[in-house]
From TrEMBL:
Pfam families: Glyco_trans_2_3
Keywords assigned by UniProt, alphabetized: Cell wall biogenesis/degradation, Glycosyltransferase, Golgi apparatus, Membrane, Transferase, Transmembrane, Transmembrane helix
Alphabetized InterPro entries for the sequence: Glyco_trans_2-like, Nucleotide-diphossugar_trans
Protein name (record): glucomannan 4-beta-mannosyltransferase
Catalytic activity: GDP-mannose + (glucomannan)n = GDP + (glucomannan)n+1
Subcellular location: Golgi apparatus membrane
Major location category of this protein: Golgi
Gene Ontology biological-process entries: cell wall organization
MF terms in GO: glucomannan 4-beta-mannosyltransferase activity; mannan synthase activity
Keyword Ribonucleoprotein: no
Length: 518
């Protein structure tokens, strides 16, 4: 009995690293992780419902507009306006601006298409705004402008010694030229856009008929949609944007976001809105919102398409999507107070701009896709205490997806690929929106989207202008690989221990992340 020593009972603590991690996980899973995941789940469910309601609302509006023939641009008697204009011969002075930056492959296409527009030559000015840093290319662009000048077209070639304000700065300085003072309307085409020769006759009359119109926007028509799978998937997303979002905005509130090109502005509307500003990377949307707050109305002409080019490399597409996601979020941060305090527009229009246009479409849509479908749902598989509501997990996203995809019937068989690709891109879009909201690094990053020219030249360009292969570090995308590993782990866990078949989706999505990652 003397040798007996009373000791406190010891708790077994695992010695190896794997057992230690497993032990720590079991200790924090129920009291910490489960409540946090439920909070994330409820937030994502709320955002999903918001997005679902918005999509259904726009679908109902577009069905009504099409069935009842209520598209706003069809209300105008365009032919009668054309006849009156030709009879009176009081043609307004029109300025065409073509901003470009090192556009070697497309400058001839855009300049040629603009100079080929049918309009009285003495009432038309084509202004080429060349910010190119390549002196040889500048000389080629100037030579092309001289060629058209010799053919009787009034072409003004303008250059700058800097790129202050990027595209917005070029457009702003272009409007300050003395020869622009007599112009009533300005048409903007990016360097890869090729309008049909009757473009002005199908847009200007709307502005002449209705003095309250500040903008007439045409839709985009893609010349390289069939080049690869990625361009087909881009076409599906953009077709929905033009067919539904732009048409609904035009038909209900006379407001939508200017697409930055293929549009005709009343110069007075630009001046009333305060001109072009370069405070964000979406100068086009910035101008549209400010002009709308001044009471100007917009018109979307859905049956007028302008040929242009989709990004055909993943690097170019990533940069474009960063700009298109970061810019609106940053503009939302800057303009929310101004929109709320504006007394010139109705409460309904304010609500539409703040809630539907900015919050749901530009922020919630990206966050739901990434955080819910790529983070919360996979994570809930690892934690059986969290139960996913089937209607929200299956039915809502299925409905949203179908409503998006029906706008491009020829690509319905690519629906699965589109879902997987959009989920991968939601990683970058969500990151970009957060950068924009917080005004973090890269908030004002502007990388011009690389263009290769029209479809008849692309294969040739790919061979003759092929760049040196990128370094391994530039070709591997770490975030995508991390997401791929996470979803693969969740898929394997679901196969071994799960009671549903979510592993099918997780394996496909993990494969998509790995493909993009490498």
């Amino acid at each position: 009995m003397r040798n007996l020593v009373l000791r406190e009972p010891e708790v077994e603590v695992p010695d190896d690293v794997t057992s230690s991690l497993s032990y720590a996980w079991q200790r924090i899973r129920v009291p910490v992780i489960v409540p946090l995941l439920y909070v994330a789940l409820y937030i994502c469910v709320a955002m999903s419902i918001m997005l679902f309601v918005e999509r259904v609302y726009m679908t109902l509006v577009i069905i009504y507009v099409k069935v009842m023939g209520k598209k706003r641009y069809t209300k105008y008697k365009l032919e009668a306006i054309k006849e009156d204009l030709e009879h009176s011969r009081s043609y307004p002075m029109v300025l065409i601006q073509i901003p470009m930056y090192n556009e070697r492959e497309v400058y001839k296409l855009s300049i040629g298409a603009a100079c080929g527009l049918t309009w009285p030559s003495d009432r038309l000015i084509v202004q080429v705004l060349d910010d190119s840093t390549n002196e040889v290319l500048r000389a080629l662009v100037e030579l092309e402008c001289r060629k058209w000048t010799e053919q009787g077209v009034n072409v003004q070639y303008e250059t700058r010694n800097n790129r202050n304000g990027y595209k917005a700065g070029a457009l702003r300085e272009g409007l300050e030229k003395q020869y622009v003072k007599d112009c009533e309307f300005v048409v903007i085409f990016d360097a890869d856009f090729q309008p049909e020769e009757d473009f002005l006759w199908r847009t200007i009359p709307f502005l002449l008929e209705n003095p309250e119109l500040g903008l007439v926007q045409a839709r985009w028509k893609f010349v390289n949609a069939d080049e690869c799978l990625m361009t087909r998937l881009q076409e599906m997303s953009l077709d929905y944007h033009f067919t539904v979002e732009q048409e609904v905005g035009s038909s209900t509130c006379s407001f939508f976001g200017f697409n930055g090109t293929a549009g005709v502005w009343r110069i007075q509307a630009i001046n009333d809105a305060g001109g072009w500003k370069d405070r964000t990377t979406v100068e086009d949307m910035d101008l549209a919102v400010r002009a709308s707050l001044k009471g100007w109305k917009f018109l979307f002409v859905g049956d007028l398409g302008v040929k242009n080019e989709l990004p055909s490399t993943f690097k170019a597409y990533r940069y474009q999507q960063h700009r298109w996601s970061c810019g609106p979020a940053n503009l939302f941060r800057k303009m929310t107070k101004e929109i709320i305090l504006c007394e010139r527009v109705s409460f309904w229009k304010k609500f539409h701009v703040i809630y539907a246009f900015f919050f749901v479409r530009k922020i919630i849509a990206h966050w739901v896709t990434f955080f819910f479908y790529c983070i919360v749902i996979p994570a809930s598989i690892l934690i059986p205490e969290v139960h996913l509501p089937k209607p929200v997990v299956v039915y809502l996203p299925a409905t949203i997806t179908i409503l998006n995809a029906v706008c491009t019937p020829r690509s319905l068989h690519l629906l699965v690929f589109w879902i997987l690709f959009e989920n991968v891109m939601s990683l970058h879009r969500s990151k970009a929106t957060i950068i924009g909201l917080l005004e973090a690094n890269r908030v004002n990053e502007w990388v011009v989207t690389e263009k290769l020219g029209n479809t008849t030249k692309q294969k040739h360009n790919a061979k003759t202008l092929k760049k040196p292969r990128s370094r391994i570090g530039e070709r591997i995308h770490v975030l995508e690989l991390i997401m791929g590993m996470f979803m693969l782990h969740c898929a394997i866990y679901n196969m071994l221990f799960g009671e549903n078949h979510l592993f099918i989706y997780l394996l496909l999505q993990a494969g998509a992340f790995f493909i993009i990652g490498f």
